[in-house]
Design goal:
Elements (H helix, E strand, L loop, with lengths): L6 E6 L5 E3 L7 E7 L3 H12 L4 E4 L26 H15 L15 H15 L2 E3 L4 E7 L2 E7 L4 E9 L5 H5 L4 E2 L5 H4 L21 E3 L2 E6 L48 H8 L10 E4 L2 E3 L22 H24 L5 H8 L25 E2 L7 H4 L8 E5 L3 E3 L3 E5 L2 E5 L2 E3 L5 E4 L13 E2 L8 H7 L2 H21 L8 H10 L14 E4 L6 E4 L3 E3 L10 E3 L9 E4 L7 E8 L10 E7 L2 E7 L9 E8 L6 E5 L8 E2 L1 E6 L1
Helix pairs in contact: 1-3, 1-11, 2-3, 2-11, 7-8
């Protein structure tokens, strides 16, 4: 059952709804965090760890945003770029599944069931003593000059703060505070980009020709539902459209699964285009089924006609709460109807009905919502316009920001923005999926407004970025990273009585690194010595090694693999140049995949002899895996040798790390 709204120290029910203690939340704090997303939680926890008083306000009932709302297949990009509280969260996820302690070097897990994520967030909030208020919808703000004084909710409660953080997906507090923002897609010319604006491409596109008219071949009969009459503009053209939303479903084949409901307002005609696509030869997949554990999935959009409700979210970014709720209901009705149609409509081939009907909603997730996720996937809404706007150039590594407060590494990713008619056939437009070469820094200036607009507000989610750059940045771990940095800056601004724009970056960067944030790539930690496969010295090879970036989680710009051949001949030696003699802890890194070897021999060689370890590269990818501690002499006398003798799959050589004990 749903828990009544309230305030106090946070605690979660297993369905992801929030329970609250009876104690009243404070209304006068150092920091007011608006938005109970994963970012809001990270910001509030960081503020408490720095000794600040804080209150976390969530406009709805659900806490944790997409991370507890069905998005269990984390869009990590390069997992090695995730530090700070975000990294700690994923290490706690691993510990929750394995019953192991959480340490700075413990493994991370990036796939999880919603209730597990909810429990981990509950631990973080409880440990930090963060007061949480749900159903605290923003009504107005009070400002004096360029400073926010109070946030007033629809219920009339005013929350005074010295600093504020907008952690909503929508950027609502930012807008109320009078900060400049934009929506939609800039044209390529705006920031000299190549992937912005209209993009008619091949991703998630119709692979069979499908007639879009009510009466096939008759334009005068009108268009089928979901097909726009707009003309296709040239690629790169600016418009006000945004990428599609959906719900990230958690599905299961368990015997007690909840069958897909036929929603109120179900209209078969909504899926006529899909039926024609099937009749033209499309057999699926119709959605993803990425396994999270417990026999459950994170199921996302997949293909030309799927769970994305293309073109039905344009009014969401600037809409009222009532208008947004109506849009959310429309998306839920569409997506539930989509699943019911595939599983039940007799016109759908029996093989598809059987396949889809084998899935259902888990009985033990989102129990207060009938098994349906409560969080709409708001992929983009408002985006701030500040003194520094992140663009495609930073994503591609062409421009390196001098003031990074976190790293992003995911593909420049936009879902389709519209469905229209091109040459008499249905076509999708807007999908972009272009990788980035390496993790890149996000500027501090992109998460703070122009000082004249607001001097005590930070915006780590609806930050300043172009549409296509935001498509890379807009990932849950990055939001947590930026929110932790925002809270750190807020505390430093309070301590020095300064606008957030004038926090000395040198001081901020030092504190962020001390708290485990990663600001450089490859990451550097004082005292540690890392030898990467691409290091200019310290690496020698035998046999044939192939460079790759196919599997994320690698250190540096790539990793090497042996092609699953020349076993016993192919080997690679990492030889560090250690500054001091003493005991050094050695950790190895690789990217994991089922095709990897489970029995890779690794020789750690010191002046005292050789110790051989065996590692399983099918697991623990994208993290430092401890091999042990040994006494090394100063200089280059020691080494780590990766061998391929007798291995049962691809062997990866990525990087080795030496940490003084």
């Amino acid at each position: 059952m749903l828990i009544a709204a309230g305030a106090g120290t946070a605690a979660f029910a297993l369905d992801g709804t929030l329970r609250t203690a009876a104690a009243a939340a404070p209304t006068d704090t150092d920091l007011v965090v608006y938005g109970g997303t994963s970012a809001g939680i990270a910001a509030a926890v960081q503020a408490r760890r720095m000794g600040a008083t804080v209150v976390l306000l969530e406009p709805g009932r659900h806490l944790g945003g997409l991370t507890t709302g069905g998005l269990g297949a984390t869009d990590t990009g390069n997992g090695g770029a995730i530090g700070g509280i975000a990294g700690e969260f994923y290490r706690r996820i691993h510990a929750a599944y394995n019953g192991t302690p959480v340490t700075p070097d413990s493994p991370a897990r990036y796939v999880f069931e919603p209730h597990v994520a909810a429990a981990v967030f509950a631990e973080l909030l409880d440990e930090a003593g963060v007061p949480v208020v749900r159903e605290a919808r923003l009504a107005s703000v009070e400002k004096r000059g360029n400073r926010l004084l109070r946030l007033i909710t629809a219920g009339g409660t005013a929350y005074r703060g010295r600093m504020f953080i907008d952690a909503t997906y929508e950027g609502d507090l930012m807008a109320k505070a009078g900060v400049a923002f934009t929506t939609g897609r800039e044209g390529n010319a705006k920031y000299d980009e190549t992937l912005n604006g209209v993009q008619h491409r091949t991703g998630h596109q119709f692979v069979h020709r499908v007639d879009p008219y009510v009466t096939p071949g008759s334009p005068s009969s009108g268009l089928l539902p979901g097909v726009s009459s707009a003309a296709l503009a040239p690629n790169g053209t600016a418009d006000d459209k945004i990428q599609a939303y959906n719900y990230r479903m958690c599905l299961t084949k368990a015997a007690d699964r909840i069958r897909f409901p036929k929603p109120s307002g179900y209209e078969p005609m909504r899926y006529e285009l899909l039926l024609r696509y099937i009749q033209a030869g499309w057999t699926g997949p119709f959605f993803t089924t990425t396994q999270m554990g417990g026999g459950k999935t994170d199921s996302n959009n997949n293909g030309a006609f799927s769970t994305d409700h293309i073109g039905f979210n344009y009014g969401y970014p600037l809409g009222s709460y009532a208008q947004r709720e109506s849009i959310a209901v429309e998306h839920r009705t569409y997506q539930q109807g989509f699943m019911w149609f595939l599983a039940n409509d007799p016109r759908v081939p029996e093989s598809i009905r059987t396949s889809v009907g084998a899935w259902g909603l888990p009985a033990d997730e989102f129990t207060g919502y009938g098994g349906w996720p409560p969080q709409l996937y708001v992929r983009e809404a408002r985006r701030m316009v500040s003194s520094y706007v992140m663009t495609e150039h930073e994503c591609r590594g062409r421009v390196k920001v001098p003031d990074p407060v976190g790293l992003a590494s995911y593909t420049m990713d936009s879902h389709n923005c519209q469905r229209l008619v091109v040459d008499g056939a249905a076509r999708n437009e807007g999908d972009v999926q272009v990788g980035v070469p390496a993790p890149y820094g996000i500027s501090y200036r992109s998460i703070v407004p122009v000082e004249s607009q607001c001097a005590n507000l930070l915006v780590p989610v609806a930050l300043a970025a172009s549409h296509i750059a935001y498509g890379s940045i807009r990932m849950e771990p990055v939001f947590m990273i930026l929110a932790q940095s925002a809270a750190t800056a807020a505390r430093m601004a309070i301590d020095t009585n300064a606008p957030v724009q004038r926090v000395p970056y040198a001081n901020l960067g030092t504190r962020l690194r001390a708290d485990g944030q990663l600001l450089d790539w490859p990451p550097t930690v004082p005292g540690q010595v890392v030898v990467d496969n691409a290091s200019p010295s310290g690496v020698t090879t035998d046999g044939v090694w192939t460079s790759s970036t196919s599997i994320p989680g690698y250190y540096g710009t790539d990793y090497l693999h042996d092609g699953n051949g020349n076993k016993g001949i192919t080997r690679l030696r990492f030889r560090p140049d250690l500054p001091d003699a003493g005991t050094w802890t050695v950790a190895l890194r690789w990217t994991a995949d089922p095709n990897r070897a489970s029995n890779v021999p690794v020789d750690v060689e010191t002046s005292a002899g050789t110790t051989t370890k065996t590692v399983d590269q099918r697991t623990q990818g994208g993290q430092w895996v401890l091999l042990g501690s040994w006494d090394f002499t100063a200089g280059t006398g020691g080494s780590v040798l990766i061998r391929t003798d007798g291995t049962d799959g691809y062997v990866v050589a990525d990087a080795v790390r030496f940490t003084p004990t």
